[in-house]
Amino acid sequence: MSLLLVSLSVLALSGLAAFALSRAPAVASRVGAWGAAAGCAIGIVPAVRGILGEAEAAVRLPWSIPVGAFSVGLDPLSAFFLLPTLFLGGLSAIYGVEYMKPYEGRKAIGASWLFFNALLASMALVLTAKNAVLFLLAWEAMALSSFFLVVFDHEKEKAREAGWTYMVATHLGTAFLIAFFLILGQRSGSLDFEALPAGAREAADLLFLLALVGFGTKAGFAPLHVWLPEAHPAAPSHVSAVMSGVMLKTGIYGLVRAIQLLGPPPPWWGVLLVAIGLTSGVFGVLFALAQHDLKRLLAYCSVENVGIIAMGLGVGLLGLSYGSPVVATLGFAGGLLHVLNHALFKGLLFLGAGSVLRGAKTLEMERLGGLLKRMPWTGGSFLAGAYAISGLPPMNGFVSEFAILLGALAGVVTLPAKAAVPLLAVVGGLALIGGLAAACFAKAFGISFLGEPRGEQASAAKETGLAMRIPMAALALACAAIGFLAPFAVRALRPMLEALAHAPAAVPAALDRLAIALGWAAGGAAAFAALCALLAWVRRRLLAGRPVGEGPTWDCGYAQPTARMQYTASSFAEPLTTLFSLLLGTHRREALPKGLFPAGVALSTETPDACRERIFRPIFEAVGSAFSRLRWLQHGRVQLYVVAIALTLFVLLAWKMGVS
Amino acid sequence: MNLLLGILLAPLLSSLILRTKALVAGRQGPPWLQPYFDIAKLLQKGAVYSRTATGLFVAGPIGALSATLLAAALIPLGGCQASVSFEGDLFLFAGLLAAARFLSILAALDVGLSFEGMGASREALYGALAEPALFLALAAGARGSGSLSLSGIFASPLDGIAAPALALLAGALLVVALAECARIPFDDPATHLELTMVHEVMVLDHGGPDLAFIEYASSLKFWILGTLLGGFAMPIRIGGSLANALLGLGAVAALGVAIGAVESTMARLKLQRVPQLLVGAGVLAAVALVLGMR
Known about the structure:
The structure holds two protein chains of two kinds.
Chain A: H1 2-20, H2 25-51, E1 59-61, E2 70-72, H3 76-100, H4 109-128, H5 132-150, H6 157-188, H7 204-219, H8 228-234, H9 237-262, H10 267-290, H11 294-321, H12 325-360, H13 371-374, H14 376-389, H15 396-414, H16 417-449, H17 456-459, H18 466-484, H19 486-491, H20 494-500, H21 507-543, E3 548-551, H22 569-579, H23 581-584, E4 587-591, E5 602-606, H24 610-628, H25 638-659
Antiparallel strand pairs in A: 1-2, 4-5
Helix pairs in contact in A: 1-2, 1-4, 2-3, 2-4, 3-4, 3-9, 3-12, 3-18, 4-5, 4-9, 5-6, 5-9, 6-7, 6-8, 7-9, 8-9, 8-11, 9-11, 9-12, 10-11, 10-16, 11-12, 11-15, 11-16, 12-14, 12-15, 12-18, 12-21, 14-16, 14-18, 15-16, 15-18
Chain B: H1 2-25, H2 34-43, E1 47-50, H3 55-73, H4 89-109, H5 114-145, H6 150-153, H7 157-160, H8 163-180, H9 199-202, H10 208-233, H11 241-265, H12 274-292
Helix pairs in contact in B: 1-10, 1-11, 2-10, 3-4, 3-10, 4-5, 5-8, 5-12, 8-10, 8-12, 10-11
């Protein structure tokens, strides 16, 4: 436990040191990043021990805030979320040094490292806090530090707007959380997590909904995700990696913690989570398909993956409600393992996108192409991430989706029809989401990295330095490792799943079933690799000594192709975006060829967020116009303000006296 | 044994379809072993690669064939157990087919050609819509049989699933198989080049051993999905495993003849109609599930 506190202090101190060294940005950057990496490395030790259930008791330090307590602890659930946070956080920090170099001397580098390290420390504190006051304070620190990172490019109006949207969304979410903890705390008489379950009994349904909205806003459940596709692309790429890879997961952590605190779930909780997961999944991946900015695409894809996680949790809840330990264990195992997996591959993909931005100077996919030849390391790592996030064997994305699917199928087979129907929706929905995600990442990788460059900047692209390549390679290796070592990975989840289960004794048997199935799948993965190697060898032997030539792309005999004749990102996605055009509402601006000698033909498409446009914009506009009627109160005369304050106090006093 | 039969006989299935089509059209048709000759011929050739292509262009066919071979190992023939069977193998099976598709899409995009991009885009569309139908059909089989593995689902479908539901499932799988394997009415395998714009157009730039791998993998994939479909379409199981295997083979052969007949009498659908058919397959599977719910 003391190691965790050491890790937190190293993070905080190195952030402050970087800020103090603002005058020498190159040094500040190194101090901040290596401090973050060291802090994360130290913290990983207790996190791993916590996952295995060997953590020491919680630490409780004296603190003067009423009903608050500085108590932090690493139960398996906290530790499981902490591990990817620190792993990705450390790697992103190392990546960030070189990524931030072009800003040196032009921007406040020291401050950015202060906020980056504060973000990491506050996330670690959110995940380990065992008191609601501490939790909410850390939650707020996390929101604020990430806000300052989102508006790093504050000269750009887009970044300011994204920051504002993020600020409003996160605070609205926090309001629900304050209500959640206040109700729970008032009924149980304490704000320590240990004592909270006592207050949950009668109001559990209301509390669940509060937690769902509050934590769901942070996690990015549709339709509460609107801040996400704005804020994540606006931040520097190593920050996007942390925000998308792990900061969203604090929302998932909160939700799982709430589920644990609230006790036995009624069936509708599971059904609701499945429905939310399906909506987020399909919505997220469809909007991802329609984007042609690489980082925006990745941000929408996070909505999709959070949806998959929600589906896993929904399967787990349904298993709990209907008393099926197998369904519950497999659902939770799959959902929570996807938390880790998504942190790895989404972090990797955002870092890859950052390298593309540095190498090719743009993220607009219609201007990219042919980057695999020019940036082989970035391209290879991005390919690994794209393959993994599409949920294909043998990488890690397949493992977690497999667990969710197997849990859902076990429920479809054994549970009554009422439970089987939502589980069936999980099976069909995950299939659809998987297929669409594969299409989306075939597009993201295929258009950006394959073919010929579609612009001058892309053809002049250069590979990035070693410090940016190593973190990506490490994440790619981790993705592959989980894919091949899946049976061991799921067995390590046992302590956490036992803490979530109502019948912990049945968890090991259920996990064994999953591990055996995954053992076969991992065997299949090994066979796949071996078979590929064998076929590659056969091909090489066959071609040895035969004429192997090189030429232009054949193109049905047309020998003068230009790069602009290639299929583009928009055209690749067109059949699917047309199919779902009702939902997507893509704007097309086109100038069609006219007359005998047409000139000036143009076509551009843009897909703004449907929820933002159709739900939140009208609501916020209505609220804004309603409150504008109260403008006359804001007249700017201080004396009258003082009178108003005094009057209010007087009325409150009179009311209080009258009541008592 | 299943696996071996599949590996050996897969190209024969396309031969059967071609012969049926020839018979309907009053022609003699190619020799029975023509697909084998084609593959052998391609394996003996050299290759020409586009300057645009990267290593993925070569890795695509290799990975796709490996994944398809592994998927073949998971498939039961008739009532015969698959070579490998475990709980949830249906998801690995679907995942392997999806991996093969993903890799061939990337290999197609690798040469930077608009034709291949178009084929890849449509392949992605078909794949995304066919997958839910496949999953729902297999889930219906799982609920009926109470088993979580392909071999269990196909061991004796008549015991757990009513005959009308089985017919619906077979219908759903037929649509999936035709779409995944780029047959009429989804794609016309007889026309190369830009006329079809789906599967055949994706492999325009491949040649030599790479093309042999692709051709063989697609005939193996067709065999695999045909065997699955045969398992529902011909649900009768008799005692011995040899008899079961023969029945399974008979079902696949009947399927080949049926597809030949379909291809002789139908034209390719307009692209806009394809999603409707695939969603329809998903609905068929869902209806079969509802029939099975009690």
